[in-house]
Amino acid sequence: MSPEPAPGAVGASRPRIEGPLKVTGAARYAADVPLPDLAHGWMVTATTSRGRVRDVDASTALAMPGVLGVLDHRNAPRLDQGAGNYFGPDGSLQLLQHEVIPYAGWPVALVVAETPEQARAAAAALRVTCDAEPHDLDLGLEHPAARPASTAFGPEADTGDLDAELAASAVVVEERYRTPEESHCAVEPHAATVWWDSGDLYAVDSNQGAFSVSEVLAALWSIDRERVHVRSEHVGGGFGGKGACGPPVILGSLASRRFGRPVRIVMTRAQVFETTSSRPPTDQLLTIGADADGRLRAVRHRAAYALSPLAEYIEACTEQTKVLYAAPAIRTQLVAVPLDVLPPASMRGPGATPGSFALESAIDEVAERLDLDPVELRLRNQPAVGPVSGLPFSTRRLVACLREGARRFGWAARDRRPRSRREGALLIGSGVATTSFGAGVFPSTASITAETDGTFTVSVGASDIGTGARTALTAVAADSLGVGTEKIRIRIGDSDLGAAWGAGGSRGTTSWSFAITEAAKKLRENPGDPAGPVTATVDTTTMIDFRPGGERQTFSAVFAEVAVDPATGEVRVRRLLGLFAVGRVINPLLARSQVVGGMVMGLSMALHEESVRDARTGRLVNGDFAGYHIASHADVPDVEADFVPDYEPQDPSGFNGLGEIGTAGTAAAIANAVWHATGTRHRVLPVRLDRVLEPGRAAVREP
Amino acid sequence: MIDHTRTDVSLRVNEAFHRLSVDNRRTLLDLLREDLGLTGPKKGCDHGQCGACTVLCDDRRVLSCLTLAVAADATAVTTVEGLAAEGELRPIQEAFVRLDGFQCGFCTPGQICSAVGMLAEHAAGWPSAVTAGDAPDRVPELDETEVRERMSGNLCRCGAYPSIVRAVLETAARQGGAA
After folding, report:
1. B174–chain A Cβ distance below 8 A for any pair
2. Quick one: closest CA in B to A235, which residue?
């Protein structure tokens, strides 16, 4: 188990370093930086889901006060078409480059004016005419365009004789689960302030990785990456929705180039909903066979997700099926369906979150059919090694999460029969779900300068989108240099600080920490001339073992209690408890905040969130915070979260990521609790009031 | 010639007096951010749905994105920048930092202004939708349910709600109601 770490900054709760700036309004975000001679851009977006722009008539707009000009696909500067993202070329970066409309919300023009009011008014006066073509937004496993998903994250599972194991099973559960399109909803809308100076491109941008945005901008403009300078000191949330090089910084670079002025573009909330990205809808089929004593014999997980033809994307719904349970036969089949949708992007716990809803609901259904306790069923099917990979787990503290969570929740007192508990008119139920989420590191660069006054300047291209990275990395640097945190000055959020992974994949803090600890080691080995400042820089690219001999995963167990009002269909979450095994925890105060926040997002997913589209036009009908409900204060109980002792041997400091796992297991735990309360299984998210009131109408094909 | 698209307004912001000519379309939020450089108040939705723009107008909480600048003429506005003296934190601000009542920090200026206004409303005996009784003749007890109800106009996507509620309740208990 865990080596006993030396006492130091890591492991201690400390408030956020930038906290005083954030509570006094002094922290500046992308739309907050003052700049002389600033012009304001306003996006105009397509209202058809597929088609072509026939004409953009700017005559009225151009005559309006303060208008500097209008950019569209006919007059915008040209961008390189090869630019891409993590998965390869990305057509969604090609803004104002052609007349094709790939989805409703696609930017078709940009109005630039002296003030935001003038730009908005002129944008409203722009007359855009389009030729609409038939669109298809109807996701389903059987869609004729379905094709195997990319296996860039690993091969499909196909172990054992699935048919024979199912035939030999005492019970077989086969059910279909659907999750809707969802929106990231960071409260900060995507925004960028952009300018050119002497051929160099400068941007203050709201994103999750300034370095990767600078790489994409350099590719789009065919200039050296060193000539692109992206700063993102404070970012108002991302959740995956700001992982890419977003429309504001691309359009801002076009407009600034065209008009020779700094340009700021702040997307409206409606534009964030319709133009940025989404968690794609999923359609999943789980087939699980088990013996009468609850031993699983076979698990088959088929899943389909929507994506845009503009770019490759993987919603890895089936990953946990390869990790969570031992079974002689496991088969996964993940398919992608290209549709005329808003291009998807990772959203907090991509794949795992919708996938967990399906898998952990189905496991609960097996327990129901066998009349077994769902915690006990899970305990009976824990694998000794990776059930598909055959590799050992470098650490797997899931059983500890389950047992400790069950103890704190008072699970033993639960009557497992549905509809067995009432309080007045309310039906009370409880549910559980477990989760795994992959962990690891990506290449990053860090520099540490030993200053002559005994302090250290630590520079790493990290992003703090609310994760607490600035504070966590300060602790990591302090311990690896053997000094107190007061000696550390940390610089992040700037592409000029060198190559670094962004805040994503639950791999930001581990990746940056690895680079910092290696740079500290190098500095201590080569202290240099004590009279002057000494700098050590390390790039971890060649140090990372991308094919380790063990599965590296984080784990959780989430317990929920709900009260359902059978008269109104209202579901209230009364208790939410999560136990997490995420390696060694750097800062328990901030780590708890992050997993609690993840669980709040999972609660929101379970009960509130869905992007609703008009079948006729394909447009979002609820693209604002009045129509797309995210959990508010009144929806959220006092969420409890804690960590079981854990240490990740594959990491030099024992760390794993924890940014996403909080979200992944929560929706299933809540849906299972709703079943326990009401006796009705909800296989379509969200568990809406009308679906609770009229469960018979919650058909699996319902949009 | 009279410009009918602009109006002169006078207002006090964080104890400083300002007289400006504003575009009639300008909101109070944009006046604060664009004209005065006070970027603490945030534009999260511009529709009064998220609460990130909350400021205090004559000590009452107001959504500055739904307030036209011309309608704020002759008011005294307090933004998050004006809640505490230079270099000091007000108790509610200190509690937010210590109890980690935020993550990304974007909704935080609105949450804090809202909390200050909400605690004053509560101290004045205002009931909320969850207050028992139709017309209480006493100050309702401030518990978690009351705080959640009264703060629900301020969205936080990072999900810091439990810590925010703790920070508000602790501040209320320590200050006897004033934040």
Report:
1. no
2. B104
Please, what are the domains in chain A? 19-26+442-543 (3.30.365.10), 39-134+187-237+242-276 (3.90.1170.50), 147-182+279-439+549-697 (3.30.365.10)
Burial (CB count within 10 angstroms: exposed 0-12, middle 13-18, buried 19+), residue A648: buried
Dihedral through CA B9, CA B12, CA B13, CA B16, nearest 10? 120
- B14 near A CB under 8 A: no
SS3 of A408-427: the string is: HHCHHHCCCCCCCCEECCEE
Of the candidates B5, B30, B79, which has its C-beta nearest A25's C-beta?
B79
The minimum CA-CA distance between A593 and chain B, rounded to whole Å, is 7
The CATH code of the domain that includes B123 is 1.10.150.120
Cβ pair A501, A510 in contact under 8 A: no
pLDDT, position A7: 66
Over the stretch B103-140, which tens digit does the pLDDT of each residue have?
Answer: 999 999 999 999 999 999 999 999 999 998 765 677 88
Asked if B30 and A589 come within 8 Å (Cβ–Cβ), the reply is no
| Catalytic residue flag (residue A660) | yes
Q: Is the dihedral of CA A218, A222, A224, A229 positive or negative?
A: negative
Low-confidence ranges of chain A (pLDDT < 50): 1-3, 700-701, 703
Per-residue pLDDT reduced to its tens digit, A462-499: 999 999 999 999 999 999 999 999 999 999 999 999 99
Chain A touched by B104 (CB under 8 Å) = yes
State how many domains chain B has.
Answer: 2
Query: What pTM was estimated for this model as a whole?
Result: 0.97
